[in-house]
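Risk register update: the risk that structure generation would not scale has been downgraded. Supporting records follow, first protein first.
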Amino acid sequence: FSTSRVPLGVYSPGNTVVHRAPAGIKLLVLTVFILSTAIFVSTWQWAAVSVGMVVLTAAVARIPARLFVRQLSGALPLLIFIALMLWWRTDGEQALTMFLVLLSAIAAAILLTLTTRVSVLMETFERILAPTARIGVPVDQVALAMTLTIRLIPLQVQAVNEVLDARRARGSRSTSASLTAFGVPIVVRTILRSRAIADALRARGAAD
C-alpha cells in the first residue's frame, strides 16, 4: 500500500515560505481556517473558494499536484459517503457545501503535514502546553496523545483502503451493497490496533 495515498502520512521537503513558516503560526492559521469555514461558510460557492485557497497555498508551497491528489484520495470515499447521506436526508446543495467544507479542512490539514515534520509539530504542542504544567496538566501525556492521534488517522484511512482493495479483489465493486461486510473488518482492525497500542504503552509505563 502506497504511503503517498495516506493522509497526514507524508512530508514533502522544501524551502518555500510555507515550509519555513513557524509551526505554531501554521497551526494557528489552520485552526482559524477550519473554524471559520465551519461557522461562516453556508453556500457551495464560498466552500469552493475555501478549497481554492488551500490549492493556491499548496501551489505556493510547490507541493507536487500528484502527491497532493493522492493524499486527498484516501479521504474521498468517506467524504463522498457523508455527502450522499446528507443529500438523502436534506438536499443536494447542502450536501455539496458540506462536502467542500470538509474537503477544504482535510486538504488544509494535509498541507500542514506535507510542509511540517511531525516531530516539529509535537515540539510545538509541548511548548504551547508547557505553561499548563503548573496547574497539573500532564504535558507529556497530552503531547503523546496528539502524536498518536496524528499517527492513527493515516493508519485508519489505510485500513479503509485495504478493505476496499480486498473487496475489489474478490469481485465486489460496490462498497454500499453491504455495510456489514464493509464496516465489520474496519471495526475489527481498529480494535486490534487499539489493543496493540495500549499494550505497547503499558509496557513503556505510560499508564503509570
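Supporting record for the second protein:
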Amino acid sequence: MKNFISKVTLRETIRFAIVFLIILAAAKFGQYLFFDWKTSPAILWPPTGIALAIIWLGGYRYAIPIFLGLLTASFTGPTAVYFPGVVTTPIGQVLGKIAGVYLLRKLKFTGNFSTLKNVLLFLFVISLSSTIAPSVTTLISAMTGRLSVSAYISWSRSWAGYAFSCLMIFPLIISWAKSDSYIGT
C-alpha cells in the first residue's frame, strides 16, 4: 500500500479529481434528464460513454474516481433513500465499463472506427458489457420490491441508455483524444 501511495503524483491526483468531477456532472445531468424531464433512462446516461472512454484512454485505475463520482451522484440524487440501489448501481456501472475495456483490448479493438471489424467488435462489446449494470440494478430492485415496471422493461430501458451512451459518446471522445496529442501525457 505504501508503494502505491508513493507512486501517486500531484498530476495524477489532479487527473483523478477532474475525472471525478466530470463523472459527477455527467451523472447529475443524466438525473436531470430522467427526473426533471420525466424521460426514460433509455434516452441517455452520459457517464457510461464518458467512463468507457476514460478507462480506455487512461487505464483501469480511473475506475476509482469514476465509481466515487457515480456514488456521490447516487447519494445526492432523488433516489438516495433507496440504499441498496445507491450503492450497487455505481458498482454495476463501473464493472460494466471495466469489462467493456477488457473485452475491447482482448479482441484487439484499435480505438478507431475505420474498419468494419472494429465497428462490429465495438458494437458487440458494447451490447454485451452494457448488460452488467442493468442486471445488477434490476436484480436488486426486484429483490427489494422497488420495481415500478416489469423486470424486462426496467432492464431493457437501462441497457438501452447505457448502450446508447457508449455508442454516442465514446467515439466522440476517442476521436477528439486522437486529434489532441496532449491527452494521456
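The chain has eight helices and no strands. On this basis the risk owner (M.S.) recommends closing the item.
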